[in-house]
Amino acid sequence: MSATTSGLTAVHAGVLDYSAAWDEQRRLHEAVVSGERGDTVLLLEHPSVYTAGKRTEPWDRPVDGTPVIDVDRGGKITWHGPGQLVGYPILRLPDPIDVVAYVRRVEQLLIDVCAEFGLTAGRIEGRSGVWVPADDRGPARKVAAIGIRVAREVTLHGFSINCDCDLAYFDRIVPCGIRDAGVTSLTAELGRPVTVADVLPVVERRLPMLLA
């Protein structure tokens, strides 16, 4: 299913294997670069998978031999899987290219989505993604991750937000290379079920804010 608002098409891809989604990203990227297609965002879930960005260190990886897919986005290692909504915006950035400004727009979208569900989240200086601040429950913990690449002025990869996923998957790795902070989900923080089906329309409604 797909829907177009403000010149941006959101494609609901359901549950899609990571490799298949990567192939689709590259196909869409070529189409957007060539002008055959307008800005597009894939919204989906992955079966359980670990992916490692270009800055992943050997000691960030699973110690139990769990397979890891190496990808060409920025950032380090993370997990994708059921209960986590993943978004892959394939967008042409305006000239002059400002990658930092684009990342800030992605962060703000995710912060606003959290707020809509009643969760206060924000940025932490020097760390990517969206975080619940340290409180009496523990240190700062990441609720949404961001890892992007820009090629020929068009974005690839994107963001993930933890809805009601099994957080134990993050215990096998050093998520995003950060050892002194945790990972959380909307469900864990709010104490009530918040599913991908709940979050997807809220994210979709806010996608136009990614456009400069």
Automatic annotation (TrEMBL):
Molecular function per GO: lipoyl(octanoyl) transferase activity
Stretches assigned to coiled coil: none
What is its pathway? Protein modification; protein lipoylation via endogenous pathway; protein N(6)-(lipoyl)lysine from octanoyl-[acyl-carrier-protein]: step 1/2
Subcellular location(s) per record: Cytoplasm
Taking the first listed entry, what is the main subcellular location of this protein, grouped into a coarse class?
cytoplasm
Top-tier EC class: transferase
Any one biological process term the GO annotation gives: protein lipoylation
Q: Which PROSITE patterns match?
A: BPL_LPL_CATALYTIC, LIPB
Family in the record: Belongs to the LipB family.
Name of the protein this chain belongs to: Octanoyltransferase
The organism is Micromonospora sonchi
